[in-house]
Amino acid sequence: MRRSGELVQWNNKGGYGFVRDDTGRDYYVHISKMTGVSRPRIGDTLSFETAVGRKGRLSAVDVTVTASIPAPQQTLRDIKQAQGNVSRYAVGLRTAAATMMTILILVAISTGHAPAWLALLYAAMGTASALLYRFDKLYAITGQYRVSETNLHVVDLCFGIIGGLAAQEVYRHKTVKPRFVATTWAIALAHTLGLAALAFGGFKMLFPGGY
To answer: Which residues, other chains included, contact 204 with Cβ-Cβ below 8 Å and sequence gap of 6+?
Structure first.
């Protein structure tokens, strides 16, 4: 027998929650049992079949959203505003790091220690990284599937770090989680040291002829 109920709890990161039917009984619901591409929000009305899940827990299966609460209307201006738990000083360091790497790239090219295409590579990958952070921020707001942290780090590592740092500051995104922040700074440090060595001739033994 198909039932209808309201989603009363939802863990967006884990993809699970509880739906309460008209009798007040709660059913466990997992994202894998839902149809559609958008994740539900608390307050949505769901239609579902019932089943007994693991450990004898009542679960909802074949779940569809029949009525959704309106999504909060936010603009890019809204998501660029600083969050209360983000230090402006800490965020400002990202601009400083991105600026330093940009200067080192220009120095390396102007002194003949690096080819001009290096700047184009950083610019292209930086743009790609910034777009990924932007999409992930928007997905987080609308409750859609997120860009994985691994993908963000991989693009940053592959010469996208300048754009990634800039996007983190502009969108106030991914600036709090300790492990993510630590990995971001490790990538930034590696690129900064590499660019510094390149700018000041540290790689002359590898490229004795210069560019």
So the answer is: 113, 210
